[in-house]
Amino acid sequence: MSFSLPPPTPPSPALAPTPAPTLASLTLREKIGQLLNVGFRGCHPSACALAIRDIREHGIGGVILFDQEMVDGSAGRRNIESPAQVRELLAHFQSHARIPLLTSIDQEGGCVNRLKAAYGFPESISHEELGRIDDSATTFRHASTIASTLSAHGFNLNLAPVVDLDAHPDNPIIKGKRRSFSADPEAVARHAADYIRAHRAQGVLTCLKHFPGHGSATGDTHLGLVNVSATWTDRELIPFQRLITAGLCDVIMSAHVFNAHLDPERPATLSRAVITGILREKLGYTGVITSDDMEMKAISSHYGLENSLPLAINAGIDVLCFGNNLSYHPDIAPLALAILENAVTSGRIPLARIDESCQRVLALKRKAGLIASP
């Protein structure tokens, strides 16, 4: 079935591209700040003093919004109350950013859906349901609704689509939440391509997740280390390869899964063999790689920030995500900055790695129309 793409949504005048920063014009701390995507508490500017501090003083590169507070089993409201409130909040954040922010959210559709109908946003359906319908125009249409909603409310990056395979019936976090389009990697790639094109037509970046594949897991990396050595197959790389080849990757998110056949020592996020060796060198990906939440138990319970942050950057991760929602640390941004700055000055991280990642982030912001070309 063929159809025509609608014209791209023009950028908001409030977010007209700012003058292009150059790598040479940034201090080490400013470069590192661009590599941080940070969650925060508060729905209104008056309740977000720490987030505004992190934007103004620490120069974080992005923010991520959640609708529910999950720390200590609580389920209070986090950042999202209504469409008007979200627009106001994100516009306020951007007004304080010297380099415009990547504003991100997990708005896959179905269960993973932060902008819920209960808050006044459109209904959405899961990847699994779209895969079952198996119609390109239907996937494009539903993804267009998501993308237009994001664009209209100030988001420029959707942490979706999921390109994990429906590869294990006991998978609690992919299969259990209906997040996979299909068990067939070619079908996953096809639906993901439609999903991404719909977002691009609305000027919204997307993020493939979770590399090198979470669909065969039988555990949840939110809760602890997940070993996929006995279940993972290289079929799980196929959607990533197809979408890289098609030029449809803005960002790719790493998984915290451990696979002894790929790296006998470390989970994927911390593995140079996986992130650089497979994703960069074997699959030829040159864009931004973001981590999954660095506070998920698969990482935080085994490595700690002092070890995990340098390991992730040296593995090839460009952006470190701190949802700040599984656990809450009001000073996570300055803490991460200090750890990474110390790691560079002590020689644990080469300055060239920071420069590479910062260049990729700035290029992504140019792609999004947030900053002007040099």
Description of the molecule:
The protein has 12 helices and 10 strands. It has 374 residues and is an alpha/beta fold. The chain has a single domain (31-367), classed as TIM Barrel (Alpha-Beta Barrel), CATH 3.20.20. The strands form 2 sheets. The chain has an 8-stranded parallel β-barrel with strand order 1-2-3-6-7-8-9-10, surrounded by 4 helices. The N and C termini lie far apart (40 Å).
Number of helices: 12
Q: Structural class of the helix and strand makeup?
A: alpha/beta
Q: What is the approximate shape?
A: globular
Total number of beta strands:
10
Task: List descriptors.
36% helix, single chain, disordered N terminus, eight-stranded parallel β-barrel, 374 residues, 12 helices, alpha/beta, two-stranded antiparallel ribbon
